[in-house]
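Practice problem: predict the structure.
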Amino acid sequence: MHRLKHLVFHPFVFATIPVVIGLDQAKAQILPEHALPMLVMVECFVVLCFLLAWLILKDIIRAGFVSFTILLIAFSYTGFEAVFTKLGLQVPPWVPLSLVLLLGLAAVGAVLKTKWNFGKNSIAVDSIKMNSVLNVVSLILFAFNLVPLTIYEVQDYMAGQKWVEHFAKELGPTTFKEPIAKKPDVYYFIVDACANPETLKELGKYDNYKFTDFLKHKGFYVVPEAASNYDRTSLSISSSMNMQYINAIPDTLGTEYPGETLYSRLVQDSTVVRTFKKLGYKFINISSGAFATDSMATADLNLRADWGNFFSTALLTMTPLWGTENYFPLLRDQFANRHTYVGAELEKVANMPGPKFVLVHTQITHSPAVFDAQGNKFPLPKTLMNSQFPFPIYVEQLKYAETLIQKWVSQLLNRPGDKPIIIIQSDHGPYDPMPNERAYFNEVMRILNAYYFPDMEKNGLYKSITPVNSFRVLFNDYFGANFKILPDRSYCSPIRVNPYHWRDVHPELQFNTSEPKTSLNEN
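Answer:
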């Protein structure tokens, strides 16, 4: 019992609580496994503080007090910022940062005192009893936060697995021609929130014909009437990666079901991935740092820019690290690097023995705006995905994205040997405030959709193909599959809050089918 009193574990238990609370608040969008990198980082930070304090103080219990205090102060930074905001004071970032550091030093000094003096009276601090209390409180808070979250995650996981098997069964048995002589590598680029050329001309006064002309010159079929099947990432990618409409989910679970992570499970264990593996393909995921594609359990290889992801960046903005961002933009640079990381890995991936299916979900055209047209970086907004920015700034970032995509395409197609299949497709358009529903539908549902099908003189591509049919056509053309082509529909809700208040707006989408100008003959 004496030894138990000297056990110090409360700093390490408390270290899990900010991560668990953050995951609980974002549980409808974030898979629990995607919180693990941040959990490991926080634990490593606390372990380092604990070991240094132990080394200096030569007292394990007081080392526990110090590491706990540093952790508490670190995750209180947002509260200090909020004080100035509520007082209506606009102060430079170093002010709340300095306040946190000063209070942190004072708090560390306070917990190291063995006796508190109040005038003529003094109170001795029983460090052993205080350590025991903190140990118990940490376990209670840990259980209080983790138990309901665990129940939710288990239920959500089971629901996700149920629908994974449902859509696998709905797709039905697939037959392929035998033998399959050639199995080309397949690259699927999902360019998140990339606008359709018509949207760019209407809202951004930008004609990106040079980019689309580049794709056509390389042999791409750029879909003239390109539209998404759904108006947001989770719905759109789960549909395209399963080659089916996913309306059965809200029809069964109700339109108030909160969990988008259910759709993440559909992406991670999709019928597309299963079909490629049945054909003998390896599945390689180049991490997006967000959504289901941050890491894929079904992938044979996940390639990452760094240890972090969208969740870790969001949580770190709550710490003093955010106060240093104006001077040392570490979070901004890390966040931006995940957008451009694709180029660093394509050559390595292309050299890997095939056949392989490579998924690249990039946020390069999604909010927040991180780049200008030349690739210079903007400051990172604290609101991250909820940040709004003017459409002209969106266009500037998109111009840089087009430059990168051209480099990526050239990397793949300028190589000697057999050419890969490449699909470049946005999941939905941008979200700029629109004056009416029809304008909103055209902004959000019109997308970029382009296909490079090598050695295929005649294929099943057509002018209004939507993502739900992309892989149906691919498997039919290259592997002799027997997939039926589905009607092309575009489900969109005018109410951004509830995605399931949708209707098929495909007939309301407008496209200019006249022959576009060309840049092939320009210098």
